[in-house]
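agent: user wants the structure for Acyl-CoA desaturase from Metabacillus litoralis. delegating to structure tool.
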Amino acid sequence: MKDLHSFAWYAKQISPKLPKKVFKPVPSRLWGGLAYLLIVVAGFLTIGLFQLHPFIYLLISFVLGTSFAAMGFLGHEILHGTVVRKPWLRDFLGAIAFWPLSIGPKLWRKWHNLSHHVNTQHEEHDPDAWPTLERLSKTKLLNWIYHLPHGVRAFGSFASLTLMFTLHSARMFAAYIKEFNPKHRRSVWVQLILPWVFWITLLFIMGPMKWVFAFLIPLLIANAIVMGYISTNHRLNPITEINDPLANSLTVTVPKWVDVLHFNFSYHTEHHLFPGMSSKYYPLVKKHVKNMWPDRYHEMPIGKALVALWKTPRLYYDGNQLIDPREGHVYSTLGHGLDISNITFRKVNKDDALERIIKLSKSKVGQVLKDK
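agent: tool returned. relaying tokens verbatim.
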């Protein structure tokens, strides 16, 4: 993909083809959120008030975990202003929706709306972008991780999905808290602390065993579901100098009933084209994008996307490639030769790699490349 365009450029081409109603908020989405909230309350009461077989508790945990995740998807939509427009109501409803995942609305808008969306797949400014080979020598943890065999790394990466959203949220809080205006900083802290006060209070009310089924296991399940989507959003796409959603984003396909339950969260390219539009209308946007730029648009079943993630490393090399420095294997990205039905690699020449890396410690990279 040679010619890159900004999301605004694409939006300008598509907008005239869309009915005016798609640019208005859709408050009816809140009915789905209310349903999930009632399910969560019912689950808590059932676990807390009744002595049941642990297997029954586990089934309830699964329902709670899927509800936590779905509430997070709705919270994501609410905080983009596509459900209600009044700032105080948007933040209030967003806080409720993100309560199970313990993320405050001010942090989310700073991290996701203002940083990730504006700088998608920018190697320095996107807080969600995966690292480049240049960063390998500067991060001891990365150096250690990439000494491990690919299979071990892939297993660890997929296992960590059960924790990754919560851990990354904490990292984003630490990264952005000082950037808030001092008069707003206190409210950001409050939005972080209040959910955890609630969950810890619930621990004392229910007791440790029931709390594990009511919150801890559902949180792990919710993390896995949310990260199952997020891990496919951009990680098979290249790093791009221009924020081009058709180049740097991937839409995954899931059964229609899953899209209904998850508020169309699978339509990720469409979301980056129109972040201020309700996901209710993303199927219509997708139809126009595929008609106008069929050779640029990336989509695949979520299962195949996850398999491709397992088979490829998460370290960028030369922008549009992924590298396993331990083996010296280089893989293509979407739009640059990646074929998910036949994932192959080429062997990197260490000397060529070192010449293309700017400001990189040659001794450290050389050690990683040789350590097979």
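agent: one observation worth passing along. Residues 358-372 have pLDDT under 50 and may be disordered.
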